[in-house]
Amino acid sequence: MKRLYYCLFASFSILLFLSCGGEDEPSPSKSKEQLALEKLTGEGTQTWIVGAEGSVTHKGQNATSDFIDFEITFSSSNDNKAYTTSNSNLLFDESGTWSFEGSNFDKIMLSGSQPAAREEIPFSGQGSNLRLEFNVPSPVAGRVSALAGDYVFMLKKK
What is the pTM of this model? Predict the structure, then answer.
C-alpha cells in the first residue's frame, strides 16, 4: 500500500511540475525607431493641431494666435515618410518628406524650402501631446527676418 501511495505521489508531483511550465514567449520589444514612429504617426498617419488646447511660442513670446489653425500630419509606410501642413504662415512647406536625425530617434528633419525645412527639430511627447522645438536661423539676403528665432509648438492629436 505504501508503495502505491509513493507511486501516486511521485506521478502527481511530476504532473504538477510539468504543468507549471514557463510563460508564453514574450513579445519582442520595440526598437527606439518603432517607438518614435508610433509617437509621430500613430498607426501610420497622425494629424497634430494647435487648436484650442495647444500653443506656439516664438522667441519666447506667445504666438498661438498666429498658428491657431495650424495642422501637421505625419505618415509613414515602409520606408516612405511624408508630411503635410496647413495654415503654417509660410513657416513650413505644404508637403514633403521627413526623416529621423541621429541615432536617438528624437529629432526629425523636414524637406522643403520654407524656414522650418532642413532644420533639426527635436520632438517629445506622450499620448495626445507632441512638442516640436526648433530654431529658424537669421536669413541671408532676401528672406523675411520676422520668421527667424526659436519656436516651440505644443500640439494635440486631432
Answer: 0.79
